[in-house]
Fold this protein.
Amino acid sequence: MMQTDLDEWAKEFASDLGSDNARVPFDRVISRHRLRLDGFIAHGLTYATLAKAITRAGGRRPDGTPYSDKQFNSALRRAQRSARDADAPSPPPPSPASKPTPRHPPNNALRRRMDRAPQKPVVPPATPPATALHPPPSNSAFIRPTDQDRDLSDEDIRAALLRIRRADP
């Protein structure tokens, strides 16, 4: 039963494509047959099966080559998308009294605001701590971990240098 339905549909599809003198665009014929194609796909037929049925019924591209399954797939997707878009409600047109406000002010207004804006001081990027650049060796138990959040005083630096000098043989 499915084969006879498919063959009858394929003959109708091929005749809708037209003759060599008057061709109907493939996408337009697909759109016209969209619901029937959706039914065939829902019953498990593949795009390759549909393309072969059209070829058997005499439907070919204008250059004489058969339609491929990929052409069927993409044309049917476009037809489904356009049908879905046509069913979607369109947004109401804007009223003439309400004019949309621009997202960004014109350049001259932006420049005026920039001139009046207080200048922020430029802060140089923070340098990474020395421990991140040169991690201490794992066997040195005499180095105490330091608190990264506090500043080192001159005394802390002198004490650290003294410990380093003592450690060198």
Q: What stands out?
A: The chain has a mean pLDDT of 76.
